[in-house]
Amino acid sequence: MTIIFDNYNYCYPELKSLWGFSAYFEKYHLLFDTGSNGRALLENMKALNIDVKEIKYLFISHAHWDHIGGLDSVLELNPDITLFVPASLSKHLIENLHTLAKEVIVITDKPQRLFGNLYSTGILGEDTPEQSLIIDGEKPIVITGCGHYGITNIVDTASQIITKTIHLAAGGFHLMYSKEKEIADTITSLRKSGVEFACPTHCSGDQAIVMFAQSFGDHYIQGGIGAKIEI
Questions:
Q1: Whole-number Å distance between alpha carbons of 109 and 135
Q2: Which residues touch 175 (CB under 8 Å, ≥6 apart)?
Q3: What is the pLDDT of residue 12?
Q4: Which of 63, 154, 197, 220 is spaced 20 to 30 Å from 139 by Cα?
Q5: pLDDT digits over 48-57, tens only?
Q6: Angle at 40 between CA 120 and CA 211, to 5 degrees
Q7: Domains and CATH numbers, the chain
Q8: How wide is the angle at C-alpha 136 spanned by C-alphas 131 and 137, nearest 5°?
Q9: Burial class (CB within 10 angstroms; exposed 0-12, middle 13-18, buried 19+) of 109
Q10: What share of the chain is helix, strand, coil (3-state, %, to 5)?
Q11: What is the CB-side half-sphere exposure of residue 145 using CA atoms within 13 A?
Q12: What is the average pLDDT value for the chain, to the nearest integer?
């Protein structure tokens, strides 16, 4: 997993940091979200030696602009892509995507196997409906776009879906407006759920990132553009 769009920069000053999130899973040829800006997304991909033509699948977590802003840019260069999109996207956008991509699979509120050992949690939450990605295996992983439903709730739901403990939680944890106690409670809950590694980035917030780093120690993984996470 390589983070290719984020408002944090891992260690590559030449890469463009803008508000939003996207990550690429080379093993699966899957792009997770597209950030807020297509030009910046493609420039970052090129700098990280990721060929847009190699993408076979594109997973959209939710409808916010900072996660779908680069969608058109990717499809313009590579229309031979299967999209996994939440039903909460505009119905007109979904109709248009059917004409722009190889295949569009609409995810409802039901958990769904995508292919191989990849699953969607299904759409979670009502205020900001969002799906998260589960990678099953010996050490299961959950990747969130913004985690509007609550990172602890998402991890618990994912664990129930695959009947395994989640090993790593990564992505936006949506704690940027949270008080210190709420962040501390979230960390405690995740640890009780069995999460061993955490990579909070994007909308997780500076304070939460510091607290996760302090709590998880060597098991904290720094996010930001260019960060590579072994899965």
A1: 18
A2: 151, 182, 183, 186, 200, 203, 204, 205, 207, 208
A3: 87
A4: 63
A5: 999 999 999 9
A6: 60
A7: 2-219 (3.60.15.10)
A8: 165
A9: middle
A10: 35, 25, 40
A11: 31
A12: 97
Q: Tell me how far apart the alpha carbons of residues 51 and 77 are, in angstroms, rounded to a whole number.
A: 10
Residue 230's pLDDT band (cuts 50, 70, 90): confident
Residue where the block lists tokens 């299961």: 140
Residue 31 burial class via C-beta count within 10 angstroms: exposed 0-12, middle 13-18, buried 19 and up? buried
Q: What distance in Å separates the CA atoms of residue 80 and residue 83, rounded to the nearest whole number?
A: 10
Closest to 89 (Cα-Cα) out of 110, 111, 104 = 104
Residues 6+ apart with CB under 8 A from 73: 34, 38, 39, 41, 42
Q: What is the mean pLDDT of residues 121-135?
A: 97
Q: For the whole model, what pTM was predicted?
A: 0.97
Q: Token pair of 96, please?
A: 């248009």
Contact 195, 222 (CB under 8 A): no
The span from the CA of 163 to the CA of 218, in Å, is 26
Share of the chain above pLDDT 90, in %: 97
Asked if the model's pLDDT at residue 231 lies above 80, the reply is no
pLDDT tens-digit readout, 33-50: 999 999 999 999 999 999
State residue 96 phi and psi, 5-degree precision: -65, -40
- H/E stretch holding 172: strand 168-172
